[in-house]
From TrEMBL:
Pfam families given in the database record: Ribosomal_L28
Gene source species: Luteimicrobium album
Keyword Ribosomal protein attached: yes
Signal peptide stretch: none
KW Ribosomal protein (keyword) present: yes
Keyword terms, alphabetized: Ribonucleoprotein, Ribosomal protein
Protein name according to UniProt: Large ribosomal subunit protein bL28
Length: 78
């Protein structure tokens, strides 16, 4: 599963893991992306979204209909 939020567009960040001896190795900071199923009244069906925890809060605040309309306006498939 890709670590990209469909609501916020949040992607993995990259940086270094620094050991006790200060050796730097590349590492990846993944966002907390979860697969959630929502009922969308305007579409009359359930949709599965890959959303970060911040995206879940946005859906709770704005409403699923508004967020799904924005996703569809971007041309993304549900």
């Amino acid at each position: 599963m890709s670590a990209v939020c469909q609501v916020t567009g949040k992607r993995p960040g990259f940086g270094h893991a620094i050991s006790h001896s200060h050796v730097r190795t590349k590492r990846r900071f993944d966002p907390n992306v979860q697969r959630k199923r929502y009922w969308v009244p305007s579409l009359g069906r359930h949709v599965r979204l890959r959303v970060s925890t911040e995206g879940i809060k946005i859906i709770d605040k704005r409403g699923i209909d508004v967020v799904v309309a924005q996703i569809l306006a971007r041309g993304e498939r549900l």
